[in-house]
Design brief:
heterodimer, A: mainly alpha, two-stranded antiparallel ribbon, 2 strands, 1% strand, B: alpha/beta, five-stranded mixed β-sheet, 16 strands, globular
Chain lengths: 438, 763
């Protein structure tokens, strides 16, 4: 190695090239099959459907980006090669989760995700705090796996099915108590994985992992809950636990977003943000939009991976004296309000959602408020030209909504093979309550 | 006990901790500066025991140096014999390796964790969107009002907490004998030396944040001891077991043998030079360039001199202007000269007369960037937009992530950074620091003259070329919390270009030149133009601030630029050991967000030469700081005094900072960048929270986790001057005398009155 300019090893470069190859293969498959999802099944052990391909593409993308970053960032690290093994193990575990049809394999994948992630948290085994954090997280993941195993076993033994597809097909025949008990178990497993209140502590104590591993954790690992819920979507309808998902998600989303505001170090700040975003994802599931949850986990992954990888940029000398917030003028307020409404209609129009009185209206509301608040923050910036504020900004916002809709529509269309993933719940009091609180 | 008594006890004890500087203005200071009045070995043995730190290189480092042939076997043998040791070099090295560091459990972990939590909350400088309540009432009061809600400790708080910190501290201490108080305070200060060092910084430098939200060591002690009491943690904690004295002695022998070897080879190198006495520049040089004495300038000077008729000088990168700088973007004021010397001036930017239009455009750009940044921050924080924002912006983040990973050098134009150059349209103005009026006052003409004269004097100037360039330096790196540690050390971790610009402006002034000639006999030719420049040390690019250079100088300027471009190529090749595309590689390293080692900073330095360029001109001295000094122009030794009291002290700090950060990176340094976590916008901690890191990260000093890149040696200084000069200075200066006699630096004199023989200096 050139000690004046130490660079990444050949092995590491081969590793991330391999991941990029897998990513392009997954994308290639999606393009080749689009818009009809593949229906491949092998002896009740493996299967490939639309979700398999989408998640493969997602997880290989994040692993590839993070590994490309890590190959350089971790140069000289004593456990350089161990990082390769662990991230490969993690990537394959997630891939297996959506590839498995046999329920035992599914459980194995879930266990593997936790195993490899906790090893990444404690990768620096000479460091006592890292070892402690790894143990703490592993305990959480083991308990989560146990809950999942219990939930799945209940279903499997009652239905006498050992494959996921078989289980889903016969879910109607199961008794309500069994459904409820297993749904609760699986929700607990999901809540642990995505660090929902009150299981959020592991995520906030996992900062001993190298920064790239954190990026992988916050863009990959925590998403496990969204995938799991989507795989078993019909179970939650049948067991009437959708409302529970909204409550778990809704409360956590609000608490975590406020907790984020008082964090004084960047990684814990991002950690709270992840918990809030995952809570929102679970809420989307509860509203019946499992497809929106899948899209959210992908987009949030982009956002959070970027912020973790760039978390070294937070040093800045700022003044303790805060500038005063500006008030909105009347004409500006009209514009802000109008644009929000317009954005909502635009969103509803291109996604075909959210104007009927069901859970979708909640999502549309979020779009309206986001655009409104974004416009509110732009319009007051007198240092930007009027054209930028009144023309360019709205155009950017609408393009963003358009991009989102593109992914949303594209994946919804593709995921037509999955049962009940786009099945809005009727509007309930609870939803209105959260809508108002938000 | 009264507040004064307590304060006195704390001040007494606080010398065992150093100052932790904020990372936005990183100062490489000696973490053990409080021990500088003790002999080096004794000091480090004591400090090491108190801090629980390693203070000498470990066996692996010696092994590495030994195998690389950097330690002379004869030197080791000689020292072993002198100290009456029987071992051979090889067997003593084995002996060292058989005493590895043992991991010890921190017995007051819970107390440390809680203290860190409250300190981090209070000392936050803008990370949290909602700051801690009651902050304006000071640390102790804010803590007292909020601690009752802390789940971790509230059930242990069985006594009412006194209103004032001195009451709480007295209560905690009164059960102990007065002679124990010093020990108690010392040990609790040193339990978290990074955080307490930062309190020290905030108080002593009267930082803006401390003016708004005051904290001091007394409040810290009160909070710490009160919590210790409540948690039943020891008030007088035991120290960790001492490192074996024999082992330390043996290590010290190895360190000295290593230093002796380096010095012997250094003197060999210098002897190889013995050329014409004085580099009497035969012709007038085309251009003269003054660089920072920084060891990174040496390569540039050496290669540039080879390319043309250039003369180069080394000076402190602050160019003798003891100033603070008012940042035009934030309006915040930072130290921009050696951290241990109080500033006299403040420099601020104003639009240059002929560039009002550009200046206005620059300021508009600034406000625009501010607006975008504010927008992004708001959108991430507010409910429920945070959720919508993530979905709407996800694709943009994906795009930037790919760009920064695969096209790091192309991404700058999308970042929220200035595209226009401040230097094009603005001028640096120097004002007295203690001005009373609101508006800045220009300093008086005599003062201006003194500043300019000081700069010439300290370099040993004889003739003036048509073009004189004062070159400051700074570093560019991406995603790097330690970016300012790569900037100019003489400017307290800031770019040196501001000082250079301020000086060039003064030197161009007709009035200043008139006085210089009339009163000091320094005649600057009419055709001499002074400009400033900046050397970017991570890319080796040199940018000349050449606005306003007249047509007559275009040709020289043009050639200089061409030569600098050529030098950039050869220099990056040498620096990175990359024969091909070295410029591209350097540029990539400076911009890549995944690069943990954008450049090596001052790693690898070991020596300091104070003397004329001719001493070092034909050799390679990239391990040395170089100060230009010509004793024949310094009749009374006053110039040498200036160098020894300024730059030499700075270099001592730098060198000992690098030394201690290398020998125990976890305690004195920053730990590995891989797991760092930025806290409060001003510093880093490791993992979930730890002591505030006070020094350079592992990646700045080590090639890998196990292999050092910087060799931890004390600074070896060589001065070419008559011994009597140095005697006079040392006699008067107690600080220098103490550093020298206690072995914190090595000093050698090359005495021109004794045929340039080199001898170790002892007073």
């Amino acid at each position: 190695m050139n000690s004046k300019n130490p660079g990444s090893s050949l092995l590491f470069r081969a590793f991330y090239s391999f991941l990029w190859l897998l990513f392009f293969l997954s994308i290639g498959f999606i393009v080749a099959y689009y818009p009809n999802p593949p229906k491949w099944e092998w002896r009740g052990v493996f299967h490939i459907n639309s979700l398999t391909l989408i998640i493969w593409a997602t997880v290989t993308f994040f692993s590839a980006v993070v590994s490309t970053f890590a190959s350089r960032y971790l140069v000289g690290f004593r456990y350089y090669n161990r990082f390769i093994v662990l991230s490969l193990g993690f990537t394959f575990s997630v891939s297996l989760l959506v590839f498995a049809n046999h329920l035992l394999l599914l459980l194995l994948a879930w266990l593997g995700m936790g195993f490899f992630m906790s090893r990444l948290i404690g990768i620096d085994s000479r460091w006592g705090e890292a070892r402690e954090a790894a143990r703490y997280c592993q305990r959480h993941f083991s308990v989560g796996s146990l809950f999942l195993a219990t939930g799945i076993a209940l279903l499997s033994f009652s239905a006498h099915e050992h494959t996921l597809t078989g289980l889903i097909a016969h879910i109607d025949e199961l008794s309500f108590p069994v459904l409820l008990a297993s749904a609760l178990c699986i929700i607990v497993a999901a809540a642990i994985q995505s660090a929902m209140f009150p299981f959020h502590r592991w995520l906030l104590s996992a900062m001993t992992s190298p920064t790239p591993a954190s990026a992988l954790m916050h863009a990959g690992f925590v998403n496990g809950a969204g995938i799991l819920l989507t795989l078993l979507a019909p179970l939650f309808f049948k067991s009437n636990t959708m409302t529970l998902l909204i409550i778990v998600g809704g409360i956590t989303a609000i608490v975590a977003q406020f907790a984020k505001l008082i964090q004084v170090n960047i990684k814990q700040k991002l950690g709270c943000s992840t918990t809030a975003q995952m809570a929102f994802m679970i809420m989307q599931c509860g509203l019946g939009f499992f497809n929106a949850a899948v899209v959210h986990l992908i987009l949030h992954g982009f956002y959070k991976a970027y912020l973790f990888l760039s978390s070294g940029e937070e040093i800045k000398h700022i003044s303790p004296i805060k500038p005063r917030r500006k008030e909105l003028r009347k004409r500006q307020a009209v514009l802000v309000f109008g644009l929000g409404i317009l954005g909502a209609f635009f969103f509803a129009w291109i996604t075909g959602k959210g104007l009927s009185a069901d859970g979708g209206i909640f999502l549309t509301l979020i779009v309206a408020i986001t655009i409104g608040q974004a416009m509110d923050n732009v319009i007051k910036q007198q240092h930007l030209s009027l054209v930028k504020r009144v023309v360019v900004a709205p155009v950017v916002f609408f393009v963003s909504v358009g991009l989102y809709a593109l992914l949303y529509n594209g994946s919804t269309f593709f995921m037509n093979d999955l049962p009940m993933i786009d099945h809005p719940e009727p509007l309930s009091v609870l939803q209105i309550v959260f809508g108002v609180v938000f | 006990m009264t507040k004064q008594e307590l304060q006195h006890k704390i001040d007494q004890a606080a010398r065992v901790i150093g100052k932790t500087w904020p990372l936005y203005s990183f100062v490489t200071s000696n973490p053990l500066s409080g021990f500088e009045d003790m002999a080096f070995f004794k000091a480090i043995e004591q400090a090491g025991n108190l801090w629980g730190a390693q203070v000498l290189p470990n066996a692996n480092v010696f092994r590495q140096a030994w195998e690389e042939g950097r330690i002379d076997a004869l030197e080791v043998q000689k020292l072993l014999q002198e100290k009456g040791k029987k071992e051979s070099p090889e067997s003593s090295l084995m002996l060292l390796a058989s005493h590895p560091m043992v991991e010890c459990l921190n017995e007051h972990h819970e107390l440390d964790r809680l203290t860190v939590k409250w300190l981090a909350l209070f000392m936050d400088e803008g990370m949290a969107a909602w700051p801690m309540p009651f902050k304006e009432m000071g640390f102790y009061t804010a803590w007292r009002k909020l601690i009752v809600y802390d789940e971790d400790i509230k059930k242990h708080l069985d006594q009412p907490i006194p209103k004032l910190p001195e009451e709480a501290l007295s209560q905690a201490l009164e059960r102990y004998a007065p002679e124990d108080h010093h020990k108690i305070i010392e040990r609790h200060l040193v339990a978290l030396p990074g955080w307490t060092g930062y309190i020290k910084y905030r108080v002593e430098n009267n930082s803006l944040w401390n003016q708004e939200y005051p904290i001091d060591l007394l409040e810290y002690m009160a909070v710490r001891l009160w919590m210790a009491q409540s948690l039943d943690a020891p008030i007088l904690p035991a120290l960790l077991p001492k490192e074996n004295h024999e082992v330390l002695e043996l290590k010290y022998i190895w360190l000295e043998a290593w230093e002796n070897t380096w010095q012997n080879r250094f003197f060999e190198r210098l002897k190889g030079e013995q050329q014409p006495k004085q580099s009497e520049v035969k012709n007038r040089p085309d251009a003269q360039l003054v660089f920072c004495l920084d060891s990174r300038s040496e390569v540039l000077r050496r290669q540039l001199e080879k390319r043309g008729n250039y003369e180069t000088f080394g000076s402190a990168g602050s160019f003798g202007i003891l100033m603070d700088y008012c940042n035009p973007e934030s309006g915040l004021i930072n130290k921009a000269s050696p951290a241990m010397i109080p500033s006299k001036y403040i420099v601020h930017e104003e639009p240059a007369d002929n560039f009002r239009q550009e200046a206005q455009e620059y300021q508009e750009e600034e406000r625009r960037l501010g607006a975008y940044k504010y927008f992004l921050k708001r959108m991430k924080n507010i409910l429920p937009s945070a959720f919508g924002f993530v979905e709407g912006s996800g694709f943009y983040y994906a795009f930037f992530m790919l760009m920064r990973t695969f096209r790091p050098t192309k991404v700058n134009r999308f970042m929220l950074e200035h595209k226009m150059s401040l230097e094009r349209s603005h001028e640096a103005h120097i004002s007295p620091i203690d001005h009373e009026e609101e508006a800045y006052q220009e300093i008086s003409l005599p003062e201006q003259v003194l500043l300019v004269k000081g700069a010439f004097d300290s370099c040993g100037w004889r003739t003036f070329a048509p073009l004189v360039v004062f070159t400051g330096h700074a570093s560019h790196s991406a995603n790097n919390p330690y970016a300012s540690s790569l900037d100019c050390g003489a400017c307290a971790g800031n770019p040196g270009k501001r000082n250079a610009r301020a000086l060039a402006k003064l030197a161009n002034s007709v009035e200043v030149r008139a006085v210089l000639q009339k009163e000091h006999g320094i005649r600057i030719p009419q055709d001499t133009i002074f400009i400033a420049a900046e050397h970017i040390t991570s890319t080796d690019e040199v940018q000349l601030f050449d606005v306003g250079v007249p047509e007559s100088h275009r040709q020289i300027l043009h050639r200089l630029k061409a030569d600098l471009r050529a030098v950039k190529e050869t220099m990056t090749q040498e620096r990175l050991d990359e024969p091909r595309d070295s410029v591209g590689i350097a540029k990539n390293k400076a911009n890549n967000w995944a690069e943990a080692r954008p450049e090596w900073g001052l790693s690898g330095h070991a020596g300091y030469i104070i003397g004329p360029r001719s001493l070092s001109k034909s050799g390679i001295y990239n391990d040395c700081f170089l100060s230009s000094y010509d004793w024949t122009l310094d009749k009374e030794g006053s110039i040498l005094k200036g160098i020894m009291q300024g730059p030499l002290l700075v270099c001592q700090w730098i060198s000992n900072h690098y030394y201690f950060s290398t020998v125990d990176n976890n305690v004195f340094g920053g730990g590995s960048k891989i797991t760092l976590n930025i806290t409060g916008k001003h510093g880093v901690v490791q993992g979930n929270g730890s002591d505030l890191k006070m020094g350079l990260p592992l990646q700045s000093l080590m090639a890998t986790d196990d292999k050092v890149y910087h060799y931890p040696l004390r600074l070896s200084t060589l001065i070419q001057a008559p011994r009597t000069y140095v005697d006079r200075i040392i006699k008067e200066d107690e600080k220098l005398r103490s550093l020298l006699n206690n072995g914190w630096i090595h000093l050698f004199i090359m005495d021109p009155e004794e045929e340039n023989r080199i001898a170790r200096y002892r007073f």
